[in-house]
Specification:
505 residues, 21 helices, mainly alpha, globular, homodimer
Chain lengths: 505, 505
C-alpha cells in the first residue's frame, strides 16, 4: 500500500459519515413512527427499518473499514491520544469491533421485531394487558441475549449491553455505586415522609389548557437556548429527543390539561438533550468527534436543565409571573412558595417519568436489577409483572394498581433498550457534578436564572462538553471538566441542600 | 446455471422489492421535508436524499439484477404476455435498462441539487424573485439534458424525460393530441366569455375558517373512500400525495380562510391519487404488478374525483346541506345553484392549480412547449420569465402580474420534474374516458352521488384499474377498460355537456 495516510483517513471518515447518514434516515422514520405515521403503516415501517438497519450494518462491517482503520492506526496521524484523528480512530475501532461481532440477521431481526413490538406495547399499556406484550418481550430478551453473547464480555452478559449505551461502564461498578445511593436515598425518603410536611399538590392539577402548556413550554425551551429554526416540538406517547442531524433536532412531549408538570418538565428535559445535539460540532458530523459521549452524559444534560435549572427556585422567581399570565385561572391565588414546593413534592409514586428528584433513582435501581435477571436467565419475561411488583413493594412500600403503572410504563424494552436505564441514574450523578463545577466557574447562577439569563450556562456546557464530541469517555470527561472522578456525593449533597430547607430536615 | 426458475424469479422480486423499500424511505424524507422539517434541516436532508438515491441506484443497476432478469426472460415462466411474471419481467427490464444508462454521479447530483433547489424555490416564489431561482433551474436543466442524453431517445431529447413519467408516450403523439385540444378549448373559452354569464364568485371568498375547511375536506375524502387509518392529511405549500407504502398514503393541502375551493378541491384531488395508492395490491408491493401504471393514469384518478365527482351538481346536492351546517355564516343566503355555478366558474386565470376544467389544459400546453424548448436548448432558463409571459398572453390574453403567479408558481422544476406536466392533461383525458365507461357500467352515478354513495365507483376503479398494477401500459389500459384507444372526444364532450347548460351556449 502506498496510499497517502491523509487520504486513507479521509476515506475512512467518508465511509463512517455515510453510515451515520443512513442511521439518521432511520432516526427520522422512528420519529415519524411515533408522531405522525397512520396506524396501518406499521408493517411497512418495520420493513423499512429492518432494511436500513441491515444496510447500515453491512456498511459498518465492511472489511474496507477494517483495512482503512488499521492503516490509520498504524500511521503517524495518531500521535496525541486526545487528537482529532486518534479519537476518531479509537471510537471507530470500538464500534467496528462491536458491529463485526453481530450477525447481519440478528441486527435486521432486532430492527424488525422492535418496530412491531412498539405498537403492541402502546396497545398493551393502554389496556394494561401484559400478556399482549409478553411474547414480544420474550422475543426481544432472546435476541438481546444473543447480542450479548455475540458481542462478548469479561464480567457478566449484561455488561455487553450496557457498554453499547455507556462505553466502559460495568455492572460491577454500577452495583457498588447504586448500593451507596440506595441506602442514602431510602434514608432521605424516610426523613421526608417523617417530616409531616406536604405541599398542596392540587394546584398543579387545575385546568392547564394544552395549547397554553405548549406555548409556555416552547417559550421556556427557547429561553434556555433550544433553536426552533433547527428543531421542533411534537406530541408522542413517550417524550423523547431525536437528533436527526445538523440543523434538525426534534423533541416531543405529551399534554395532560389537568397536570402542569408532566409536559413542562419533559419539555425541559428533552430540550436539555436537544441542546447537546444542537451543540455538537457539525463539521465533525457522523464521526466520533461530532457525536455524544454516551447516554449517561446525554442524560446529564437533560437532567441538568430539567432539575437543576427547571426545578430551582431561582428559575421560578423568573418564570412564575409568566406562568400566572398564561394560566391566570389556575394560578391567581397561588404563591411562588406554594408553587415551588408543589413542583418539588417528594413521595413514592408508581411512574418513573413523574417521579421527583429523590425517588427517581429508586425506579432505576429496580429496572437495573430486573434487567440483569432477564439477561442472565434468572427471570423469565412471564415473571416480570410479579417480580416488578415485589421489587416495587420492597423499595417504595407500595404495589402498582396495574401493569400500565407498573412494568408496562416504559417504552424502552419494546425498542430493545435493555441496559439503557442505568444511564438515567448516571445522568443524574454527572449532572450534579457538572452543575457544582459550573456554579464555581460562572459565579452566581441563581442570580442569572432570576434574570432569565441562561446563555452563560448553555455556553459553558457547549464549550466544556458538547464540542468535545467523543474526545473523552464519560469517566474521563467528568475528570476533565470537574477535576474529580464521578462521585455520588455531589448529587446527594444537592438533594440535602435543596430538600433540607423545604422539608425542615 | 442449474437454478430453479421459480427461485431465480423470487430472488429477482426480492431485490426489486428492496429497492422499492429504499425508495419509500426517501419518500418519507421528502414528505417530511415539505411538512415538518425545521428550516435549518435542509442541508442535512439533501445529504440524506442524495445517499438514498445513490444506494437505490446502485442496487437498481446491480449486474445481478440483469443476470436474474435474463434468466427469467428466457424461462418458461414468461408465457402469456399479461401474466404476472411476464408483466413483472417486462417492467423490471424497462426500469433496469433506464437505470443502467444513468451514471451514479448524475443520479446523486440530481437528488442533492433538487433537495436544495426546493427550498430556494419556496423563497423565490414567496418573494417573486426569479433571479434567486435561476441558477438552480440552470443546474437542473443541465442535469436533465444529461439525463436525456444518457437514457437515449428515438425522436427528440424530451421523449427520454417524458418516458420516465409516461412509459411509451412521445412528444410527437402529444403534439398532435394537444393541437386538437388547444383549438377546441380556445373556441369554448371564447363562447363562454361571449355568453356574458358569470357566477357570483364572492360567495367562495367569504370567511371559511381553516379548521372547518379541514374537517369538511377530511369528511369528503373519507366519504369517497380514503382510509385515514392508512393515511393522513397535512399542510404544505404545494399539495401532493405520497404513497409511502402499504397502509401509509399521505395527502396534503393548504388552507386559505378566504377561499373555499383551494383546499377543498386539492383534498379531493389528492384523495383521488390516494385511492389509487391505497387500491394497489399490497401482495405485489415493490414489484411492477403492485405499482401505478404511469403519472397520466395516476392523474386520471385524481381528476376524476376532483372534477367528475367533486365539481358535479349531484355531489353538491348531497354535500351542500353539510357545507351549510359547517359554514353557516358564509352560506346562509347562498343557493345550491349559485354555489354550484361559482365552483364551475370558467375564466382565464394565472395559476394552474386554481384553474377551471376548461382553461386548465391551456396551462399545461404552455409548460409543454417551454419544457421542450429548455431541453432542446432553444430557450435558456434566463429567458423563462419573458417566454412564459409571452406564451401566457398568447393563450389567455393576459400578462401575469409577477413571476410568483407566472413561471415560479409550480414546484415541479425545482424537483427535477421536467416532462411531468403533460401527464396532467393526459390525466384529464383518461379520466373523461374512464368516467364515461363507469357511467355505462354502473347505472345512474348521479343518483348514487346524490345519496352520498361513492363505493360503487371506487370499487369499479379498484377492480378495473388499481388492482392491475402495471399489467398494461396506459395506452393499452384505456383500451382494456373502455374498449377504445385514448381520444380527446370524451373530455371535450364532457365539457360541452356540463358547461353548455351553465352558460347557455
Amino acid at each position: 500500500m502506498t496510499r497517502n495516510p491523509a487520504e486513507v483517513y479521509a476515506e475512512l471518515i467518508r465511509r463512517v459519515r455515510e453510515i451515520a447518514l443512513l442511521d439518521s434516515c432511520a432516526s427520522l422514520l422512528h420519529w415519524d413512527h411515533q408522531t405522525y405515521m397512520p396506524p396501518r403503516g406499521s408493517g411497512h415501517r418495520a420493513e423499512q427499518l429492518a432494511l436500513l438497519a441491515g444496510l447500515a450494518h453491512q456498511q459498518a462491517t465492511a472489511p474496507a473499514i477494517g483495512e482503512l482503520l488499521a492503516e490509520v492506526e498504524g500511521s503517524a496521524l495518531v500521535d496525541d491520544v486526545r487528537s482529532l484523528v486518534a479519537v476518531n480512530a479509537r471510537e471507530i475501532r470500538r464500534t467496528y469491533d462491536r458491529a463485526t461481532r453481530l450477525p447481519q440477521t440478528l441486527v435486521q431481526e432486532l430492527a424488525r421485531t422492535c418496530a412491531l413490538a412498539r405498537d403492541v406495547w402502546v396497545e398493551a399499556r393502554s389496556t394494561s394487558d401484559f400478556r399482549l406484550f409478553q411474547p414480544w418481550l420474550e422475543k426481544i430478551v432472546a435476541l438481546k441475549r444473543q447480542e450479548a453473547e455475540a458481542v462478548g464480555y469479561s464480567g457478566v452478559p449484561y455488561d455487553a449491553l450496557l457498554d453499547d449505551y455507556e462505553p466502559g461502564e460495568t455492572t460491577a461498578h454500577l452495583t457498588a455505586l447504586f448500593a451507596t445511593l440506595r441506602q442514602e436515598l431510602v434514608q432521605l425518603v424516610g426523613e421526608i415522609a417523617a417530616s409531616g410536611k406536604q405541599p398542596d399538590l392540587s394546584i398543579l392539577h387545575r385546568e392547564y389548557p394544552a395549547d397554553r402548556q405548549e406555548s409556555f413550554g416552547k417559550a421556556a425551551a427557547a429561553a434556555i437556548g433550544f433553536d426552533f429554526e433547527a428543531g421542533r416540538l411534537d406530541v408522542t406517547t413517550h417524550p423523547f429527543c431525536s437528533g436527526i442531524g445538523p440543523g434538525d433536532t426534534r423533541i416531543t412531549t405529551r399534554y395532560n390539561p389537568q397536570d402542569f408538570g408532566d409536559a413542562f418538565f419533559s419539555i425541559m428535559h428533552e430540550a436539555g438533550h436537544g441542546l447537546y445535539d444542537q451543540g455538537l460540532d457539525p463539521a465533525h458530523y457522523g464521526a466520533p468527534m461530532g457525536r455524544a459521549v454516551s447516554l449517561g452524559i446525554h442524560e446529564s444534560q437533560s437532567r441538568l436543565w430539567e432539575n437543576f435549572v427547571g426545578r430551582s427556585r431561582a428559575f421560578w422567581e423568573h418564570s412564575f409571573p409568566r406562568a400566572r399570565q398564561i394560566f391566570p385561572d389556575a394560578l391567581r391565588d397561588v404563591s411562588l412558595d406554594a408553587f415551588y414546593f408543589a413542583l418539588n413534592d417528594v413521595r413514592p409514586s408508581f411512574v418513573r417519568v413523574d417521579a421527583d428528584e429523590v425517588t427517581y433513582n429508586l425506579h432505576i435501581l429496580l429496572r437495573f436489577e430486573l434487567e440483569q435477571a432477564l439477561i442472565n436467565g434468572d427471570l423469565m419475561p412471564a415473571g416480570i409483572p410479579a417480580a416488578w411488583n415485589d421489587a416495587f413493594k420492597g423499595l417504595f412500600g407500595l404495589t402498582p394498581p396495574d401493569d400500565a403503572q407498573g412494568c408496562l410504563q416504559d417504552i424502552h424494552w419494546s425498542g430493545g433498550g435493555i441496559g439503557y436505564f442505568p444511564t438515567y441514574t448516571l445522568g443524574n450523578l454527572y449532572a450534579a457534578q457538572f452543575f457544582a463545577r459550573a456554579r464555581g466557574d460562572l459565579g452566581d447562577l441563581d442570580q442569572q436564572f432570576r434574570q432569565g439569563e441562561f446563555a452563560p450556562l448553555k455556553e459553558w456546557l457547549n464549550t466544556k462538553i458538547h464540542r468535545h464530541g467523543q474526545r473523552y469517555h464519560a469517566a474521563d470527561l467528568v475528570v476533565a471538566v470537574t477535576g474529580k472522578p464521578l462521585s455520588p456525593r455531589f448529587f446527594l449533597d444537592h438533594l440535602r441542600a435543596k430538600f433540607g430547607p423545604l422539608y425542615g430536615i
